[in-house]
Automatic annotation (TrEMBL), chain A:
<feature type="transmembrane region" description="Helical">
    <location>
        <begin position="219"/>
        <end position="240"/>
    </location>
</feature>
<feature type="transmembrane region" description="Helical">
    <location>
        <begin position="299"/>
        <end position="320"/>
    </location>
</feature>
<feature type="transmembrane region" description="Helical">
    <location>
        <begin position="20"/>
        <end position="38"/>
    </location>
</feature>
<keyword id="KW-1133">Transmembrane helix</keyword>
<feature type="transmembrane region" description="Helical">
    <location>
        <begin position="58"/>
        <end position="79"/>
    </location>
</feature>
<keyword id="KW-0472">Membrane</keyword>
<dbReference type="GO" id="GO:0005886">
    <property type="term" value="C:plasma membrane"/>
</dbReference>
<dbReference type="Pfam" id="PF02653">
    <property type="entry name" value="BPD_transp_2"/>
</dbReference>
<feature type="transmembrane region" description="Helical">
    <location>
        <begin position="179"/>
        <end position="198"/>
    </location>
</feature>
From TrEMBL, chain B:
<dbReference type="InterPro" id="IPR003593">
    <property type="entry name" value="AAA+_ATPase"/>
</dbReference>
<dbReference type="InterPro" id="IPR050107">
    <property type="entry name" value="ABC_carbohydrate_import_ATPase"/>
</dbReference>
<keyword id="KW-0813">Transport</keyword>
<protein>
    <submittedName>
        <fullName>Ribose ABC transport system ATP-binding protein RbsA</fullName>
    </submittedName>
</protein>
<keyword id="KW-0677">Repeat</keyword>
<dbReference type="InterPro" id="IPR017871">
    <property type="entry name" value="ABC_transporter-like_CS"/>
</dbReference>
<feature type="domain" description="ABC transporter">
    <location>
        <begin position="5"/>
        <end position="235"/>
    </location>
</feature>
<keyword id="KW-0067">ATP-binding</keyword>
<feature type="domain" description="ABC transporter">
    <location>
        <begin position="237"/>
        <end position="490"/>
    </location>
</feature>
Length: 329, 492
């Protein structure tokens, strides 16, 4: 056995490891290249790229919290209806007081409470996250629809234009603000996940809950905080959405967002079994979904077929990821 | 006698790391052969080469006198420490898992049950094949796994530390089966760190150290544990010198009348400053349940826990740090290891919060703390940022011991602390515990190994069916008395 052989083997392995670790980035790059080939200059134009980033920043922010939730081996199906609820709270307070700051604080507080309720039910009573959030998903949506008679709220009064400016302003006239918010929150959540004791406990609990509990980690508190943090992120996303559209609808706002967020997290390489995943992966998972949507729009794929093609690409991306990481292990 | 397995001049390297160096290994048909050596010495690699999981770099393997082929390697079954049974299926379903008897897609249940039962009866085991695996005790789970291997025509069965999670009674069940198999011509390779068991059950042995075979031969009545362990470690072990009498302080941990229905009753126990106490007994003695309630992992019904002679309320495990208690649970894989975190984070898990500044973990301080323990208890680790799974079992156990110590506790509760640890590392861990006790740290050691109790403990509590039945001072710790009390007898 020569040294050259071993070092060659080593290199091969680490390349595969690299692909496995950053599979979300590779999936994104492949799709990006496909998009450039198919739709060249239209796709690569600054306005289209900014469009993609803008349209996906809301799902992007929601999937940050979802990533942490899924790393604990949990799930949150309620983020979509929670978003409608917090958004409606923000709009109602805004119209009543004309105080933007108050509206934002109220929405964030509501998001925190909603998340804490979910987290509390899951940790304290041991109800599976899927069941709890299947319930809260319906409760938040139904109560919202009842309160607003299935309709929505439009931003009115003197603060309305200042409120809509939150999401509709462009930095240097090019970069949409939602993208900046998204980027800032990515950095924040990534630091929390990697560099704080809380973040490491999130991974530990998803990896081996019993060992974490016996290692004197307050598992219930960490779980409650994870869902509360996710609730706050959903509330921030709801403010951006409300600002962007100038309105919030109790029946349609946020509908189906939970599925897009979960898809982004999973494409990003986070394990549904818990313990593994990165914020960077989720960002590229979100962008991958975004490119798929955009490309089908540009190619004029009939809107009723978009879901099917999206589904095929999601499953395909996961299969490739799975086979690469299997070879690696 | 003929040789069923002959391995000659086996070499294997992982990258630049030579794991096996010209290893010879011979197994006679119808014998029980002990494969001995410290953790990370190449035993498992050698067995993985024998079964065809790894490929060898050099050397020959003969099975039944012919060069090994994938088909003949299939007849060698490797039974790992972590059993691969499905708890929610019956014994016979496990025996036929993946090889079910079918009839037009339907299962031939009756035939499977009858055949499996006949097979089990023929090899002389009392086991109802329709019983659910989850209802079996640990020894019968092990036996089920062996039966499964035999039903698939295994000629050689490799058992990797089969007795670590078994009680003495259960070990006897497994040994009975091993002897009966040997008499029927099956060959067994027995990997174990328990040298008394080796002397009891094995016919021949091979000892490995650092990837080479240092000796092999017959197990004769003259052979002693000390001879074997000296060859494994390569130096004389100073075992008996570990225990040193020390001045003890005031009580630090006191249990008064601690009771939990069906688990433990009316337990009174006291640990003084700097004292090492042992708690022992047979399966169902309740010692693990008792201390898992003390540390807040489960609740108890009545009684009091006192720390420094003041009553405390420990509601959850997160509370014990405040009272200076640390806990190392048994069953490393289920209760200890966090597989997705690296060695460093596993070790410092309970103190990550304390190592943070302004909310962020201070990486430099983390690494410094971890390195201190790596050096102090001699954990063999290439890089503390590697995944914990890259360490051998014994070194994983050392990481968990360090994890318990890193909270700067005044009382450390260790449940089965030397699980899967080789003799050399065991002695190191014992020395560590003794040194720490000299500095005033108290230890509670839950174990069924008498030698461990003798080498470490100032006092030993013997439990039976959840009750403390005897308390032995250091000088009176002996196997006869402990077994007498543990099996329900009375000391004179």
């Amino acid at each position: 056995m020569t040294d050259m052989q071993t070092s060659a083997q080593h290199k091969q392995r680490s390349l595969k490891g690299l692909i496995a670790d950053y599979s979300a980035i590779f999936a994104f790059l492949i799709l990006f290249i496909v998009a450039v080939i198919l739709k060249g200059s239209t796709f690569i134009s600054v306005s289209n790229i900014m469009n993609i980033l803008m349209n996906n920043s809301i799902i992007g922010i929601i999937s940050l919290g979802m990533t942490l939730v899924i790393i604990t081996a949990g799930i949150d199906l309620a983020v979509g209806s929670q978003m409608a609820a917090t958004g409606l709270i923000a709009m109602t307070i805004l119209n009543a007081t004309q105080n933007i700051f108050l509206a934002i604080v109220a929405a964030v507080f509501a998001g925190l409470v909603f998340g804490a309720i979910t987290g509390g039910l899951i940790s304290k009573f041991g109800v599976p996250a899927f069941i709890v959030t299947l319930g809260t998903m319906q409760i938040y949506r139904s109560v919202s629809e009842y309160c607003f008679d299935g309709g929505g709220v439009l931003a009115t009064g003197r603060s309305a234009s200042a409120f809509t400016a939150i999401a509709n302003t462009k930095l240097f006239g090019v970069i949409p603000m939602p993208m900046i918010y998204w980027l800032a929150l990515c950095l924040l959540i990534s630091v929390i996940a990697r560099r704080t004791a809380f973040g490491r406990y999130v991974y530990a609990i998803g990896s081996n809950k019993r060992a974490s509990f016996l290692s004197t980690i307050n598992v219930n508190r960490v779980l409650l905080l994870v869902y509360a943090l996710s609730g706050v992120l959903v509330a921030l996303a709801s403010i951006i959405e409300a600002s962007r559209l100038g309105s919030m609808n109790s029946a349609s706002s946020g509908s189906g967002y939970e599925m897009d967020a979960i898809a982004a997290v999973v494409i990003g390489g986070t394990s549904m079994a818990g313990g593994r995943g990165t914020i960077l992966g989720t960002v590229f998972g979100t962008l991958t979904l975004g490119i798929i949507n955009n490309l089908m729009n540009l190619l004029g794929v009939p809107s009723f077929l978009v879901g099917a093609i999206k589904g095929v690409i999601i499953i395909g991306a996961l299969l490739i990821q799975r086979s690469v990481s299997k070879e690696e292990s | 006698m003929t040789d069923v397995v002959k391995m000659r001049q086996i070499e294997k390297a992982f990258g630049a790391n030579a794991v096996l160096k010209r290893v010879d290994f011979t197994l006679e048909a119808g014998s029980i052969h002990a494969l001995l050596g410290e953790n990370g010495t190449g035993k498992t690699t050698l067995m993985n080469i024998l079964t065809g999981v790894y490929t060898k770099d050099q050397g020959d393997i003969e099975i039944d006198g012919a060069p090994a082929t994938p088909a003949s390697q299939q007849q060698i079954a490797f039974i790992h420490q972590e059993l691969s049974l499905v708890n929610d299926l019956a014994v016979y379903e496990n025996l036929y898992l993946g090889h079910e008897l079918k009839h037009y897609g339907g299962l031939r249940r009756r035939e499977m049950i009858a055949t499996a039962q006949a097979f089990v009866d023929r090899i002389g085991i009392e086991l109802d094949v329709t019983a659910m695996v989850r209802d079996l005790n640990a020894s019968y789970k092990q036996i089920t796994e062996i039966v499964r291997a035999l039903m698939r025509d295994a000629k050689v069965i490799i058992m990797d530390e089969p007795t670590t999670s078994l009680t003495d009674v259960e070990i006897n069940d497994v040994f009975k089966m091993m002897r009966s198999l040997r008499d029927q011509g099956v060959s067994l390779i027995f990997i174990s760190h328990k040298l008394n068991e080796v002397l009891e059950i094995c016919d021949t042995y091979t000892i490995m150290r650092d990837g080479v075979v240092v000796s092999s031969g017959q197990v004769t009545p003259e052979l002693t544990e000390v001879q074997l362990s000296n060859q494994m470690v390569g130096k004389e072990l100073a075992y008996s010198e570990i225990y040193q009498p020390r001045p003890l302080g005031k009580p630090v941990l006191t249990l008064k009348g601690l009771t939990k229905a069906r688990e433990f009753q009316n337990v009174d126990l006291v640990v003084h400053r700097g004292e090492i106490i042992g708690v022992t007994g047979l399966l169902g003695d309740g010692r693990s349940e008792l201390f898992s309630a003390v540390v807040g992992a489960t609740a108890f019904d009545a009684g009091q826990v006192l720390v420094n002679e003041r009553p405390v309320r420990i509601k959850t495990t997160a509370d014990i740090k405040r009272y200076g208690i640390a806990y190392l649970p048994k069953n490393r894989k289920e209760n200890g290891i966090v597989p997705d975190l690296n060695i460093e984070e596993n070790l410092a898990l309970p103190i990550l919060g304390r190592l943070s500044r302004g909310g962020l973990i201070n990486r430099g301080q983390l690494t410094a703390t971890v390195q201190r323990y790596v050096k102090q208890i001699n954990i063999k680790v290439a890089d503390v940022k590697d995944v914990i799974g890259s360490l051998s079992g014994g070194n994983q156990q050392k990481v968990l011991l360090a994890k318990a110590l890193c909270t700067d506790p005044s009382v450390v509760i260790l449940d089965n602390p030397t699980q899967g640890v080789d003799v050399g590392a065991k002695a190191e861990i014992y020395h560590q515990i003794m040194d720490l006790a000299k500095t005033g740290i108290s230890f509670v050691i839950l174990t069924s190994e008498i030698a461990e109790l003798q080498q470490l403990c100032d006092r030993v509590y013997v439990m039976t069916h959840g009750e403390v039945r005897a308390e032995l001072p250091h000088g009176d710790i002996n196997e006869r008395d402990i077994m007498l009390v543990a099996t329900g007898g009375q000391l004179d």
